[in-house]
Design brief:
Helix 3 packs parallel to helix 4. The protein is of the alpha/beta class. The protein starts with a helix and ends in a 7-residue tail after the last strand. The chain has one domain: Rossmann fold (3-Layer(aba) Sandwich). The chain is built from 6 helices and 6 strands. Strand 5 and strand 6 form a beta hairpin.
């Protein structure tokens, strides 16, 4: 445990200082993830064109939603392959109940648990404060040897981190142990390390 804390602190210091090249930053993030204990927020992979979902969509019927494109499905598979190739330990995979998030998680990691606080609030911003508070609390409390994976939507990631994530983008978050967390870095789809 102490070694993981030292690795995380050293990695975060290098990334925050901006003293390493992008490829080295990516590898430092992968090393941090191999050490476990991080939270990984992932925006669902690429979808068919559009914004939001069609009127009258239903969570229990994927055909009524905007879903992953064939490129998005391949992107999700590459995401999972990158985690496996680097032997990144996974503690748990949680996802929004939207089909594009569930499919991203299943293709990448195999198993997934739907968790409503990760659901999109794009069409109903009144849900944002409670959902964001639940996600922030879960992130801040995460500990253990594995990494917690959260597959969700751009609006949710922005609410939690302040960052605008691209489809399939990975945001690595490190719980600090005192009920807060810090952003360790980002891994962008299409980068050599992804």
């Amino acid at each position: 445990m102490r070694g993981r804390v030292i690795l995380a602190a050293a990695t975060f210091t290098l990334l925050a200082a901006g003293t390493v090249a992008p490829a080295e930053q990516d590898e430092a993030l992968w090393a941090l993830l191999r050490g476990g204990g991080q939270v990984v927020m992932i925006r669902h992979a690429a979808t068919e064109p559009g914004v939001g979902d069609p009127p009258g969509f239903r969570l229990d019927e994927c055909a009524t939603q905007r879903n992953l494109s064939s490129a998005g499905r391949e992107e999700a598979r590459r995401l999972g392959a990158a985690f496996r190739a680097r032997e990144v330990p996974i503690h748990r995979v949680l996802s929004s109940r939207w089909c594009r998030c569930l499919e991203t998680a299943r293709l990448a990691f195999g198993t997934v648990e739907p968790w409503p606080p990760l659901d999109s609030f794009f069409d109903d911003r009144s849900r944002e404060p409670n959902q964001t508070a639940a996600v922030r609390s879960l992130i801040a409390q995460h500990s253990g040897d594995g990494n917690l994976i959260l597959v969700t939507h751009q609006v949710n990631i922005t609410a939690v981190t302040g960052l605008h994530a691209s489809p399939g983008e990975i945001i690595v978050i490190g719980p600090t142990g005192n009920g807060t967390f810090r952003i360790a870095g980002r891994l962008i789809p299409g980068a050599p390390s992804y």
